[in-house]
UniProtKB/TrEMBL annotation:
The keyword Signal does not apply. Belongs to the phosphohexose mutase family. GO terms for molecular function: intramolecular phosphotransferase activity; metal ion binding. One of its GO terms (biological process) is carbohydrate metabolic process. This is Phosphomannomutase/phosphoglucomutase. InterPro entries: A-D-PHexomutase_a/b/a-I, A-D-PHexomutase_a/b/a-I/II/III, A-D-PHexomutase_a/b/a-II, A-D-PHexomutase_a/b/a-III, A-D-PHexomutase_C, A-D-PHexomutase_C_sf, Alpha-D-phosphohexomutase_SF. Residues 377-450 form the Alpha-D-phosphohexomutase C-terminal domain. Its cofactor is Mg(2+). Residues 8-134, 158-257, 267-372 form the Alpha-D-phosphohexomutase alpha/beta/alpha domain. Keywords: Isomerase, Magnesium, Metal-binding, Phosphoprotein. Gene3D superfamilies: Alpha-D-Glucose-1,6-Bisphosphate, subunit A, domain 3, Alpha-D-phosphohexomutase, C-terminal domain. NCBIfam families: PRK09542.1.
Length: 455
């Protein structure tokens, strides 16, 4: 086996790269052995998505773990949050083989400790990389005297029942919902999760196909929800839901086919989780979510806590603060009742319960959770990220009417608007998010900052 350059595929939160060019089953086997050594596990759970390379990579990882004497439970085809469920319910470290919304030639591993606690660069992933690199040079360690077992277990029904137990769906009126699974794992999980609910389900692209023949399974890109929007209007549906490739993110469109901001969904779910918790609790939101989110949290008795962008920061803050819920503008939603892990499916059930528990259309329901005008995330290629941020700081730093903070990139806040610019960790990009009380102000601020970035 060639010694792999793992710096290219071991990212901040997961493993991800092109198969077989950057990694293959032989390397997956080493990752399995390294994972159980770093976690000290006696047993683990492994699952995979619908990509052509996923079953082979997943089984190789299981072989590597079993060779170290560890018992492996394979749950087979699953969504990422279904793997988190298995890790939480079974009390086992887990590994999910997926590259989320990346193209078909990619694959990856999302790893967690028992109870779905994340494994990232600072929580074991760098050690796993070091072991896999060393063993690829020197050969795999000697197998255990007694290898572990590899057994299969179906967790889909238990996962679905657990999610439904967390949301009161008893008073939901009949709803027509269009679901675009993007040929990803939502096509596997949605029929079972929605079973028995008073829903007329209109499925789109439910066939599991890791080559993504219809569109990229990334609903945050507006191009990928066009089919869903048209179908919602054509069907006169009550709402539409779009899932990404591994079905851990959920995006919502209203009855008009208009996208609902993930910040509005965060606010709506936060209000419901706070009500369920007696009107108190901490809610986490990252710093590019709308001003609406902390406002709604406070109005409903909760305490908002602002974090950096990224699931490792959200999950860490949820663990330390005991937060009941967390949301990101990327449509990741985290629940204390789900081991602090993210599950778009549970957020979708909250939306169905909120909509189905009253008579107004979704557009009216979410109006109260969508109070400002946002730019969305705008990416600009720049030669020097820090120089661009310094230029923005120079332009706004001396003004009396603004405050600046450096929690994640640079955030500039005024009475009627705010914006954040932060560098990409992997590309020469600056990401701009702006929000204001009205469209005119937002457009003015957005264009001012873009002019500096793109000068």
């Amino acid at each position: 086996m060639a010694v792999a350059d793992l710096s290219q595929i071991v990212k901040a939160y997961d493993v991800r790269g092109v198969v077989p060019d950057q990694w293959d089953e032989a390397l997956a086997e080493l990752f399995g052995a390294a994972f159980v050594q770093v976690t000290g596990a006696a047993a683990i759970v492994v699952g995979h998505d619908m990509r052509p390379s996923s079953p082979g990579l997943s089984r190789a990882f299981a072989r590597g773990a079993a060779a170290r004497g560890v018992d492996v439970t394979e749950i087979g085809l699953c969504s990422t949050d279904q793997l988190y469920y298995a890790s939480g319910a079974l009390g086992l470290p887990g590994a999910m083989f997926t590259a989320s919304h990346n193209p078909a030639q990619y694959n990856g591993i999302k790893m967690c400790r028992a109870g779905a606690a994340p494994v990232g660069q600072d929580t074991g992933l760098s050690e796993i990389r070091e072991l896999a690199e060393r063993w690829s040079r020197e050969g795999a360690p000697e197998p255990a005297a007694t290898p572990g077992t590899i057994t299969s277990r179906d967790t889909l029904s238990d996962y679905a029942a657990y999610l439904r137990s967390l949301v009161d769906l008893t008073s939901v009126r009949p709803l027509k919902v269009v679901v675009d699974a993007g040929n990803g794992m939502g096509g596997h999980t949605v029929p079972t999760v929605f079973e028995g609910l008073p829903l007329t389900l209109v499925p789109m692209y439910f066939e599991l196909d890791g080559t993504f023949p219809n569109h990229e399974a990334n609903p945050l890109d507006p191009a990928n929800i066009v089919d869903l929007q048209q179908r919602v209007r054509a069907e006169s549906a009550d709402l539409g839901l779009a899932f990404d490739g591994d079905a851990d993110r959920c995006f919502v469109v209203d009855e008009r086919g208009e996208p609902v901001s993930p910040s509005a969904i965060t606010a709506l779910v936060a209000a419901r989780e706070l009500a369920k918790n007696g009107g108190k609790g901490t809610v986490i939101h990252n710093l590019i979510t709308s001003w609406t989110v902390p406002e709604v949290v406070r109005e409903n008795g909760g305490t908002p806590v602002r974090t950096r962008v990224g699931h490792s920061f959200i999950k860490a803050e949820m663990a330390t603060s005991g937060a009941i819920f967390g949301g990101e503008h990327s449509a990741h939603y985290y629940f204390k009742d789900f081991w602090n892990a993210d599950t778009g499916m549970l957020a979708a059930l909250h939306v169905l319960a909120a909509l189905g528990g009253q008579s107004a259309p979704l557009s009216s329901l979410v109006d109260q959770y969508d109070r400002y005008t946002g730019s969305g995330e705008i990416n600009s290629t720049v030669a020097d990220q820090q120089a661009s941020i310094a230029a923005i700081r120079a332009a706004y730093g001396d003004r009396d009417d603004v405050t600046l903070d450096d929690l994640d990139g640079l955030t500039v806040t005024a009475a009627d608007w705010w914006f954040n610019v932060r560098p990409s960790n992997t590309e020469p990009l600056l990401r701009l998010n702006a929000e204001a009380r009205d469209e005119t102000t937002m457009t003015k601020i957005r264009d001012e900052v873009l002019a500096i970035i793109r000068a």
